[in-house]
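Q: Sequence in, structure out?
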Amino acid sequence: MIPLSVLDLVPIREGSDARAALAEACALARVAEEAGYRRYWVAEHHATPGIAGGATAVVLAAIGHATRTIRIGAGGIMLPNHNPFVIAEQFGTLDALFPGRVDLGLGRAPGAAPILGQALRKDLGRAAEYFPQDVVELRALLTGDIDLPIAATPGLGAKVDLWMLGSSLFGAQLAARLGLPYAFASHFAPDHLDAALATYREHFRPSACLEKPYAAAAMTVICAETDAEADLLASSQDQAFVRLRTGDPGKLPPPVPGYRQSLSLSEQGMLERLAAARAVGSPQTVRARIARFVERTRADEIIVSGATFDPLARQESLRLTMEAVGGTVLAA
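A: Exactly. Output:
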């Protein structure tokens, strides 16, 4: 059985607030742990009214306290928004609180509109140019493999697993060069998935932390008792995606029957682009679609994404997905 993990954007539902979203994330993490998921990641997004995970390290501290064994981590931290020293301290602190459980996925995108740079007092375009150097510096702050004039405390010596994230060939190339595990954001950007995984595997250089390539791929997965029920649940995620892509982001809306049929052809096309990394349906449907995706990508791990308006439906989706995949042979 291929390992399954969870990516959570900590969605804020219409009629709800960030406090409820954070409580729902902690409850979902407990369900993921009980169901046997390997890790629970939170993604950094900013200035988005429907996402409560912006202060990612703080959210992970809450999730770590709500769970006991599941790995917790950032999927990911958008490093150009920060300096490596602060991130080393934050994740060194998480490792001290939850030893042996912390992942740190690193991305190059800002995770918000360009105005974020002004709010952060940073030139994010220029900061992104230094992303490879910042990754090397951050790793050195944690491992001590390069002699630096300052030590992060907590941070130095922390057993944090670094990951490279990506939705293009850039992250794949950097992950391969540094010998890091690689996670591809195919749930929202599937176009370059096959080329990125091939590049990563072909150019991978063994490192102190990883002897051979290890690639995870994200899918939108929503599982319910029937295909029709799952499609209805998924309409909340579909609405949120279309609104984001058309410049009108908001809180996660309730499901709408027949939502896709109400869209224009261009909007339907936005959603159809995601079909290659999507498994929405009954346990049988989800099992078959994940199996085809793994056969195609040879992914070592699947990262399950996808939100539902009803938090309990999302919990049940995780349970049903694990049961479905656990009942078949999926070879990575």
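The domain at 4-326 is CATH 3.20.20.30 (TIM Barrel).
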